[in-house]
Amino acid sequence: MDNTVKRDERILIIDDQSLSQSYLRYALEQLGYQNISYADRAQTALSLCKQNSYDLIICAYNLPKGKDGYQLFEELKVSGLQQLNCGMIFISAETDPALVHSVLELQPDEFLAKPFVIRDLQMRIERVFRRKQQLRPVYDLLQQKLYGRALSAVDQQLAQAELHKYFPLLLKLKGDILLEQQAFADAATFFDAMLRIQPFSWARIGRVRCLLHDNQEQQAFAELEQMLARSETRLFALDCLAELEFQQQRYQQAQQHILAAADIAPRNLLRQQKLLQLSRLNHDYELQYRAARDMVKYARNSMHEQADLYLNLARASIDFALSTDDSEQQARLNRQATLSINTVQRQFAEQKLTAAQQVLQARLLYLQDHREKARLLLADLTTQSDIDSLEDALDKAKALHEVGLSDASRALFKQITEHCRRQQPEPVLSAYLQQEQRERAAMAHGPRELNNNAVHLYQHGNWQEAFSAFALAWQVMPKNAGIALNLWQTLLTSPRPLCPPQQREQLLQQCHQLIENTNLRPEQQQRYLQLKQKYLSKLA
What we know:
Elements: E1 7-14, H1 18-30, E2 33-39, H2 42-51, E3 56-60, H3 69-79, E4 87-92, H4 97-105, E5 110-113, H5 118-134, H6 136-143, H7 147-158, H8 167-180, H9 184-197, H10 201-213, H11 217-227, H12 231-247, H13 251-264, H14 269-281, H15 285-299, H16 307-323, H17 327-347, H18 354-367, H19 371-379, H20 390-402, H21 406-423, H22 427-442, H23 447-459, H24 463-476, H25 481-493, H26 501-516, H27 522-534, H28 536-539
Parallel strand pairs: 1-2, 1-3, 3-4, 4-5
Helix pairs in contact: 6-7, 7-8, 8-9, 8-10, 9-10, 10-11, 10-12, 11-12, 12-13, 13-14, 14-15, 14-22, 15-16, 16-17, 16-18, 17-18, 18-19, 18-20, 20-21, 21-22, 23-24, 24-25, 25-26
């Protein structure tokens, strides 16, 4: 006789492995659950969630033919198909920290590593259902965005001593609701009170949010520095510190923080986008390329996949190739840019992207030293039209400048500036646009010709002009060892001072450090060793 208590909660299992599905079915039936649905791929799961409401979703990471479990979970959460009353248990045989941290950012109710025993599953399911059942009145109100009534419902439950085991979750919910209401003064008082009781990580995060809202940046900095040491607050601290450093125009430090955060949880595409923008601002073309490549990698098959990601990867590939002396690397980046453009043409053929693709084709021709062909391709695009995409417009302005169509480039940059005044783009992108306009205005030639022109000036004894040109080339390509060597040589061999002593010593040191840490070409290495030997006493 079966004495198992029958349960009527609706459960959806998403797993492509029949053995795993069978095991989950057996386990759930042993626990009394009988209203169970199954999906072996993401698209089926999405269709089921659109047609039905579930009390619990058990989602595996490895799914075939399309979205993986992470991408599915993200889409269910963002689209509202997984409502607050519905529990989510994420299961995975892959426990790489980067995946785990990325999944945990989406806040599943439980994360369960394969293989697991029935007792583990039972404990987590029962824990999720108890929480959801107890907090259902609050979740219903939050789902309707009735935050005032939800706050009252939380306070009512906090007044019931028998619910003490739910108090930590209820208190966190109260803090979240106060922040959602933008009641920052009440929220700050609440978080301070909580921290006097216990150092809850959520309370520390909430307190920092209040400090930032009140522009108490120094105090927020101090709090965040401490939060870096704790694993549960490190990701939040890195994101906030990156934002604060950017506001202080300390772009290198901002990049270091967002890079550390992206290394911890790389599947957050908003974070990768910030990394891409900061790396451009710092002329770190290699990191820009990495971020653009990772965005394409992690967006593939997801709700975020779009043509712009592939276009930006092509742009990043070209920017990186223009900044390096390595011919093999240039060839690889050339192939990557071509592949990205072809992917756009093949996968997004219905979208009108011909102008953006034409600009990229011209930049590829310029990269391949076909400057006149690139110029002819761009000549048809000099007429200005309304700006639909800042990235497209910026890439076009850069391409026009590179091929020598300077007047058209300046006019487009002016149009971009006017557009930004009206539209107020994201701050990091806005800063990059302004920087790019300033630097392009200072360059009579494209980045590739800038160094060659400086070499010509140096060879004809125009020391000051050569130094200015090398210094500008170094500014826009700070990781190019060939330019560093040329600037280093100019500073060492000039018969007269070219800049103040303190600036000279700083430039010599920075160039020397890059040269020492780079594999130079044979000709460059020989020249470097000769200079080093001749001017050894000056370097000491």
